[in-house]
Amino acid sequence: MEDLSDIRHEIDDIDNAILDLFQKRMDCAERVAAYKRTNNLPVLDRSRERAHMAALADKAPEDLRTYTEVLFQLLMEASRARQGKRLAAEHAPKALAAIDQACETTADLFPREAYVACQGVEGAYSQFAADRIFKHPLISYFESFEGVFRAVETDFSRYGVLPIENSTAGSVNKVYDLMMQHDFHIVRTTRVKIDHNLLAKPGTTVEQIHDVYSHEQAINQCAGFIERMGLTPHVVENTAMAAKSVADSDRTDVAALSSRACAQLYGLDVLMRDVQDRDDNYTRFACISKQLEIYPGADRTSLMIVVNHRPGTLFKALAKFYALDINIIKLESRPIPGRDFEFMFYFDVECPVTAPEFRTLMATIGDACEECRYLGSYSEVL
Ligand SMILES: C=C(O[C@@H]1C=C(C(=O)O)C=C[C@H]1O)C(=O)O
């Protein structure tokens, strides 16, 4: 039997040789970058990469072919990232120019007062979020999320506030799907702690309740409670509308899952408090605008990416973030309507908009995907 430490010594020697060669390869990449700068060429040369990769895969033993491709994919990614750093400024794409301009023209302070579109009615959680983002939001309510997107697109409201994800129930799919169909930018996000309560008309007892109304997400966040109590859930547009409809109803066997603020607002009693299945229940909201506005301190960026339907394409996009040491905070995928199981990937990444790696990312992300849409850079307020 071979000795383990002997084999590991051998691995150490091989890795040292690889490291030496890796440095040499990266030096070559620098020289290629200098050539490209002089000759005004882009970093990515797809046909060279394809031909080179095919030649390498051909030389590799059959059982190592996939590993070989993964290894060289990463090496090329690193070499492009290093070149991108040098060439980012020269080959600044449209998105970077727009980002620079937005950074220059956006006010230093986020507005305290503004016209804001929210979905729902008075008392909706979107209202709490709007109150947190702006000191004095002048809120218009819309029945649907689509109404909020349209209000912003048509300049009816300068901003819109939309729920995007919940820590218990996950992403708000409808909002992500609408993002594909509308033009907008993200200028801020916030997190609101959500406590759901069982609200009913004054004088009603818990025992009388059979049917419970709320938003789909709230129903999901209280699924255990609903089952334990033997209640029948009914989905309505949002939690505040649920409270309003219970208040307007003649029935005495209905209740709403909603906020305590809504109990006050609609004259309902709180029959049970904090009935959500988890106590650490938060919802993240995004504040959207029509114009790109980037306020000082923006350290998060949202991107929508479409990659080809081939093995390794998402990996290539992910490798780009990895090579630049950029942390991905969220990755969501949604099917693209009308395209056979093709997906749109939403990325939230953590990187100050002023960091050089952000510029490199924006200058080169287009090389790793079929389509890339920049949604904005912003900070999250707590
Ligand atoms: C190094 C180059 O730049 C890029 C990186 C490559 C690599 O690391 O092998 C190949 C092609 C280019 O996309 C080059 O053009 O040769």
Compute the number of structural domains.
4
CATH architecture of the largest domain: 2-Layer Sandwich
CATH superfamily (homologous) name of the largest domain: ACT domain
Number of alpha- plus pi-helical segments: 13
The portion of residues assigned to helices is 40-55%
Shape: elongated
Q: Tally the beta strands.
A: 15
Average pLDDT works out at: 92
Q: Compute the separation of the termini in Å.
A: 59 Å
- Could you say which small molecules are bound to this protein? the ligand C=C(O[C@@H]1C=C(C(=O)O)C=C[C@H]1O)C(=O)O
What proportion of the residues form beta strands (DSSP E)? 25-35%
Rounded Rg: 26 Å
Q: What is CATH's topology name of the largest domain?
A: Alpha-Beta Plaits
Low-confidence stretches: none
The CATH class of the largest domain is identified as Alpha Beta
Please describe the biggest sheet, giving its number of strands, its sense, and whether it closes into a barrel: 10 strands, mixed
Subcellular location: Cytoplasm
Domain ACT: 302-379
Domain Prephenate dehydratase: 115-290
EC number: 4.2.1.51
Keywords:
chorismate mutase activity; cytoplasm; ACT-like_dom_sf; five-stranded mixed sheet; Bifunctional chorismate mutase/prephenate dehydratase; Chor_mutase/pphenate_deHydtase; 15 strands; Chorismate Mutase Domain, subunit A; 382 residues; D-Maltodextrin-Binding Protein, domain 2; alpha/beta
